[in-house]
Amino acid sequence: MTSPTEHLDPALRVEALASLLTERGLLDEATVDNFIKTYEQSVGPMNGAKVVAKAWTDPQYRARLLADGTAAIAELGFKGPQGEQIEVLENTPATHHVVVCTLCSCYPWPVLGLPPTWYKDPAYRSRMVREPRRVLREFGLDLDDNVEIAVHDSSSEVRYMVLPERPAGIEDATEEELAALVTRDAMVGVAKVAAP
Amino acid sequence: MDGIHDMGGRHGFGQVEKPTDAPPFAETWEGKAFVIGALAARIAGTNLHAFRHAIERVPPDEYLVGYWNRWTIGAQIMMEDSGILTDEEVRARAARLSGRDVPEPPAPEPHKPQMPSGGAGNLRTADSPPAFAVGDRVRVADMNPVGHTRLPRYVRRRAGMVTAIQPCQVFPDTAAHFAGENPQHCYAVEFDSRELWGPDAEQFRLSVDLFEPYLEPVR
């Protein structure tokens, strides 16, 4: 884009790029399909949910996860792009962590997959570092005034994932049942995990 | 660079979008856009930092069209920089795909950057010990580089405290311009919201990962 030119429809631009790159032997359909399938089916918040459920049921794992997130997450087989260094932030009744990337949309892909639209949206990226309590309220999370909010702007290659609080009243739930309750939004810090 | 991408603290973008359970790619083209961007650094012979910098150089009006649009144009800019293709070619191909019989301009001569690499990924070891320790008070430098930086504008000149020493990493400010990996120590620096936004700000803690060259000691 050396000179400002007329807006091109994004879908058409992608088709044009794909067509030129394929012709030059720099892109092939199998690679494209494989990438898409991976991020549609295998890499997503269900991975992070397993990590959270294990931390809730296994105190030793929880300790390892908070001490070295990358290694503890890799124990469950989750690693890859945008996961070179993952730090896990533990939410407690006193402190609520929430994650943002103001400069682009950095996100811990191996545990949460690709970021949702709202995370990449200018409103979230501009406001979360300025008025987090209001933003969280817009998401439907009304925190008590005495809960301290800690916002983390992902500006280096360190990626952040929130370990939400385990909901009360489900002491008998299995790890699998717990994993099913954990949401992407809770692992970014814009929601809590609700009991079923 | 002080571009549209540096969004922390800006006013005027309205309410946040309500979360939905939408799949990662709402439309087919978005999946293909993702792959082109994910492979762009490999195709152009560059790196992740150069890709981020290319996205920063997307014209502001195009940047705000949406994520996959800026991601795609960023990938194209980086490929143009390496002589993989030209904007004229992309537009001509788009026209032809739309059924218009326009001539196709010639392909450029590739010229990928010289880029010595210290290996895969971005974590490195440093030659010298970190200049700051946990608990140190630091002030963010008054830097306004025209090139790539991972120093968000809203913390410039503000004082905070080092709360963690992060792994030493490739320095984005030089790596994005193929001027060397130049590994730097990196720190989690925490700021009080009132230091950033004044006495009437909501009360909260804000933590940003900042590279050593961005920081000065507070005496």
Describe the fold and architecture.
- Chain A has eleven helices and four strands.
- Chain A is an alpha/beta fold.
- In chain A, the strands form two sheets. A two-stranded parallel ribbon of chain A has the order 1-4.
- The relative contact order of chain A is 0.16.
- The mean pLDDT of chain B is 96.
- Chain B has 219 residues and is of the alpha+beta class.
- The longest helix of chain B has 17 residues, at 28-44.
- Chain B has helices at 28-44, 48-56, 60-63, 67-81, 87-97, 172-175, 193-197, and strands at 137-140, 159-169, 184-192, 205-211, 215-217.
- Chain B is 30% helix and 16% strand.
- Chain B has a five-stranded antiparallel β-sheet with strand order 4-3-2-1-5.
- Chain B contains seven helices and five strands; from the N terminus they run αααααββαβαββ.
Describe the structure using short key phrases.
heterodimer; A: 196 residues; alpha/beta; two-stranded parallel sheet; two-stranded parallel ribbon; 11 helices; globular; B: 219 residues; alpha+beta; five-stranded antiparallel beta sheet; 7 helices
Give a quick precis of the structure.
The complex is a heterodimer of chains A (196) and B (219). The longest helix of chain A has 14 residues, at 10-23. Chain A has helices spanning 10-23, 29-42, 45-57, 59-67, 69-75, 109-112, 117-120, 122-127, 132-138, 175-181, 184-188; strands spanning 85-90, 95-100, 148-153, 158-163.
Radius of gyration of chain A: 19 Å
Poorly predicted segments of chain B: none
Q: Which secondary-structure class do the elements of chain B indicate?
A: alpha+beta
Side by side, the strands of the main sheet of chain B go 4-3-2-1-5
Residue share in helix of chain B: 25-40%
Could you describe the largest sheet of chain A, including whether it forms a barrel? 2 strands, parallel
Count the beta strands of chain B: 5
Mean pLDDT of chain B: 96
Largest protein interface? Answer: A-B, 74 and 87 residues
- Average pLDDT of chain A, rounded to a whole number, is 95
Q: Given the helix and strand composition of chain A, which structural class is it?
A: alpha/beta
Measured as a percent range, the helix fraction of chain A is 40-55%
Quaternary organisation = heterodimer
Strand content range of chain B: 15-25%
SSE string of chain B: HHHHHEEHEHEE
For the largest beta sheet of chain A, what order do the strands appear in spatially? 1-4
Number of DSSP helices of chain A? 11
Shape of chain B: globular
Distance between the termini of chain B: 29 Å
